[in-house]
Amino acid sequence: MNDTSTQDPSTQEPPTASKDTAQKNLEKTWRFAARMKEEIGRALIGQTRALHHTLIALFAGGHVLIEGVPGLGKTLLFRALAQTFNGSFSRIQFTPDLMPSDVTGHALYDLKSQEFSIRRGPVFTHLLLADEINRAPAKTQAALLEVMQEQQVTIEGEAHALPRPFMVMATQNPIEQEGTYPLPEAQLDRFLFKVLIDYPTFDEELRMLETVTRNQVGDALNVAAVQTIVSPQIITTIQQITARITVDARIIDYATRIVRATRDWSGLSIGAGPRGSIALIRAARAAAVLAERDFVTPDDIKTVALPALRHRVTLTPDFEMEGRTADQLLGALLEHVEVPRQ
Q1: CA 104 from chain center: how many Å?
Q2: Residue 159: CB atoms within 10 Å
Q3: Contact 277/312 with Cβ under 8 angstroms?
Q4: CA 188 to CA 172: how far, in whole Å?
Q5: pLDDT at 52 over 50
Q6: Three-state SS for 79?
Q7: Percent of the chain predicted with pLDDT > 90
């Protein structure tokens, strides 16, 4: 049975709620997070790291760029996530002829009433899947910039707010590059995480094969087994609770030193900007929530460092020719930067 009647963990108390109430709200958030993870696992087999990072991004109020070959469950992950909080879901297949108005919407003139009406695009949703985002030209990709940053769309000079929570999950294929357009740096920087999704293990693929081919016609995505745990309003409240997780000054100093180190690290021609530091702290707070803690540790920073920074740095040409990756260089950097002591 769907549990949509669960009370919002923070709206039941005034803003001056006691520490005991804040702790109870946080404990409810921990339970909600655990149940959401469990429910998504009913539809998605394996890909635990991608699921974990996607939940971190949702709780932190960020967006995710997922890179992986087709057929690894990216769409299924997002649809199952939407099901857990009864959120609306839209999918846009990015193609070379896709126009910005196909994404955001446009004004339509009604001859009968002789007035303009606004036809809203698919971005007016809780979860937006931008499939193969790098197949659309830069002008269409740029249509998402305002959407991702401001969570609003401007049509004919009028701003239209998007529903809350709002999250973009964009996908790109790392292998098939013909007919693609590289994402501009400004857009890459809007993504909290870049998540790499890989092939399942043998056991996971075996379970997937048994599950998907049992009593099912075709290859339609089935999320019927996923129960609704919370409402969109509760997810918004969880984001607010996550933003209040305690971060010690030494942790902030640690995150800043990591990001600044990327700017003069051997093998990196371009380092991460200030958004990289912000992303580390925001994501580390959400990682602490999923670990059922009310404070951030250095390990939380390390947990989120690769997905938060790998798309914000650029390798030098000689390192790229050697086949080195951003993850390898960032891993060495993390070993070099001194960790704050307890």
Answers
A1: 20
A2: 10
A3: no
A4: 12
A5: yes
A6: helix
A7: 55
